[in-house]
């Protein structure tokens, strides 16, 4: 059962919404109505920002010691853990993520809160520096890292609790109040996160959660009371967010799209490759920004890899994500299925070979499903190789040699993730260093949620996770003349 809500979370309190807009949460499996939640109006955003502004300007949160704030973060993590079973059930029902995916995402969320609770032990909020002046005297200053201010965060639907945690936890650790705007698709699990935050007993005004659409998000991003914006979503939407922040020089972090490549070298058996490389592309039905959806293999091994990969993809169970053995659930929305089917048609039109999949699964009458799909003999100029599809579509591209593979991997507007598979450690490091992307894996393809995550090029600006993840929420101040 997915819970409905009739209030919004403003400054740590559940209050009636300012407007009468309603978000209907529809099952991507049955296409039936699951729940309803209020759609936050601009007036709700104004109230949340005012509460956050008061919390920052006059409240205790930014004036606590980092260790004191860490105690609250640990309590939030404990409260999230209590709610993981309901979050998993809600996310699986709302978005169609298979249970194994949903469980992994929410385990990651608890790890993020636990990690953020230790940031005060690893980040120097204050330090003294000395240096030699030209006249031989010594200079000395106190370097202080202070919270940047009120933070507005906008997140997508594909992993809302994990994505929210990756943003909110370090922002709170830095001393920043946060206003979170989750997507209208699948908002219930994020409101469960709000309940966990409420139970942790933070001071008034520190966190707000306001589900809403584009208008709500844009009002938050443009709000003069917001000092810093952290956005996760498509590159197209990220351009808009960046332009709005540029109008008033607001600080901004962007985690955007990807078209990541996995390079398979000739010296490694495929049975040590495909078990991690393929799930990195089709996991969560490919609805992951860091999905590795371009598979680069030498021309000599192209057909061997395609045959093996096709066999694996054809064997995957597509169906009800609540069933424990389902691997491929539905796409999150009907428009998303239409988008993916459009890319499959484009791949065929441009001359790629459709090896398996490409349609809707037999025997499933409702829901927004697309079969796991494999294209072969593709060229890196094709749309299926250049644009983010956000669906279970993998594209195999042949290369001539390793330098050619690196060139193909780098021939992209994106640079978020990637992998290389080889039995030669030196070659693995060489390739990993050469590919222009925010994270590279050698003989694996996964995600580490406690280390820096973010992208090069149009995959975004800044990093989230680990000690690097708190930096965007801090401003550095130099103070001279203060005795030690």
UniProtKB/TrEMBL annotation:
This is aldehyde dehydrogenase (NAD(+)). Its EC number is 1.2.1.3. It comes from Pseudonocardia ammonioxydans. Belongs to the aldehyde dehydrogenase family. CDD domains: ALDH_AldA-Rv0768. Keywords: Oxidoreductase. It comes from the Bacteria. Residues 14-479 form the Aldehyde dehydrogenase domain. PANTHER family: ALDEHYDE DEHYDROGENASE, ALDEHYDE DEHYDROGENASE-RELATED. It is an enzyme of class 1 (oxidoreductase). The active site is at residue 255. One of its GO terms (molecular function) is aldehyde dehydrogenase (NAD+) activity. InterPro entries: Ald_DH/histidinol_DH, Ald_DH_C, Ald_DH_CS_CYS, Ald_DH_CS_GLU, Ald_DH_N, Aldehyde_DH_dom. It catalyses: an aldehyde + NAD(+) + H2O = a carboxylate + NADH + 2 H(+).
